[in-house]
Amino acid sequence: MTDALNFTYYICTSRGDYQQARFICLCSSIQSVPSSRSVSDNWLMFKQAVLTAVEKHIPSKMVIDCCRRPPWLNSHANQAIKKRDRLANIAKKSGLMVVRERYRKARNTATNTIQSEYEKSLADIIGNIKTYPRKL
Fold first, then answer.
1. Quick one: pLDDT at residue 8?
2. Where are the alpha helices (DSSP H) in the chain?
3. CB–CB of 70/122 below 8 Å?
């Protein structure tokens, strides 16, 4: 088995803080007098004016969304994880060896499922990792 890459799966987005926005300044910086240029030139000038005004007068903040699950934890892997957790609770309560063996099998199945789905998602992103494992 290949060693798993250790990275945290975060999604960072920049969101405008519209409660702190200065709308009067925003409106005054957007106002312009139309001229005799073509429609596409006027549109490009208007679009550029709006974007620079928003950038200047509306503060933004980076939002990290760490609650999203990684793409390799799909429904098949989640099903194996739920089965493993359910059997772990049953094994802890009962203490029987038969139930513990069922839990161990479910634990190994869940681990193998997660690892195989992780490798599939990496293969989708960077190509075949079995062919060139040292290039990671």
1. 47
2. 23-30, 39-57, 75-94, 97-126
3. no
pTM of the full structure: 0.47
Whole-angstrom Cα distance, residue 56 to residue 29?
10
C-alpha span between 98 and 57 (Å, rounded): 66
How far from 5 is each of 38, 94, 119, 121, 129, CA to CA, in Å? 53, 36, 10, 12, 12
User: 29 near 57, Cβ under 8 Å?
Assistant: yes
| Residue written as token pair 């029987």 | 96
Query: What's the CA angle centered on 67, arms 108 and 21, to 5 degrees?
Result: 170
The two tokens of residue 18 are 């519209």
Terminal C-alpha separation, the chain: 14
More confident residue, 81 or 134: 81
User: What's the whole-number mean pLDDT along residues 61-74?
Assistant: 73
